[in-house]
Amino acid sequence: MKTLKITQLLAATLLTSIFSSANSTELPSGDEIARNINARDEGVAVSRHLKMQMTDRHGKIRVRETRALRKYFGDEKRTVIFYLQPKNIKDTAFLTYDYVDNERDDDQWLYLPAMRKVRRISASDRGDYFLGTDFSYEDIKLETRVSLKDYTRKTLGEDEVDGFHCFIVEETAINTEIAEELGHLRRESCVDDNLWIVRKSKIWDPQNKLLKTTYFKDISLVQGILTAHTIEVENHKTGHQTRFSFSDVDYKGGVKDQIFTKNALKRGL
To answer: Rounded to two decimals, what is the model's pTM?
Structure first.
């Protein structure tokens, strides 16, 4: 029954896309906008301090301090996050390999020191929430990039976010299996057409109910690379909020290849 309902919602969304396409012919296509987002320079490698702040509906705040590193190996992107504090989560680590081949599932691993074991995250789990945050494993992997293989896209129109002109792009999961993996049916993003970066994104769950809104803020150049220093997520179902704050961003210091291995997850920084 769940799969049938998602199928019906997908069909309705795609039908709406066909009828409204004439209204957006003068604007760049959704796929063109997505390619421009992914073509933005991210640098070969980066090392950053990442502060994660989670606030529940009652106002209780939890804070995690981490070190996040990312490096491109050709077209393949690898990202690793090491938890520094608090003590009860220290030495937890997460590693992801983002492959350019659309036919190949990306690899993700999580190291939990209490279990002394590296656990692989399957593709079917990529829509799950990442360690108590409102970001999914997929969100962590992509960050400010977008998936070219999981959605069909259309450009809905234009808008402004924080005074910046944006194109509005709707992304709909290509099928029910992908919608269930991602944990959402569709997404509507406001894309800055000068910087080609998403400034605001709204996501609807597989039942087509508004799930969460993400904001990309404090965007500026660091060592010549466009960088979002703050990413905030508001979960409309739970009332939970997550704020990622990046500092000590360094694109030129160099990041060793060996840090992006399963053995490195166990060793830590």
So the answer is: 0.88
Amino acid present at 106: D
50 bridge partner residues: 66, 246
HEC per residue, the chain: CHHHHHHHHHHHHHHHHHHHHHHHCCCCCHHHHHHHHHCCCCCCEEEEEEEEEEECCCCCEEEEEEEEEEEEECCEEEEEEEEEECHHHCCCEEEEEECCCCCCCCEEEEEECCCCEEEEECHHHCCCECCCCCCEHHHHHHCCCCCCCCEEEEEEEEEEECCEEEEEEEEEECCHHHHHHHCCCEEEEEEECCCCEEEEEEEECCCCCEEEEEEEEEEEEECCEEEEEEEEEEECCCCCEEEEEEEEEECCCCCCHHHCCHHHHHHCC
Q: What is the pLDDT of residues 166-190, one digit of tens each?
A: 999 999 999 999 999 999 999 999 9
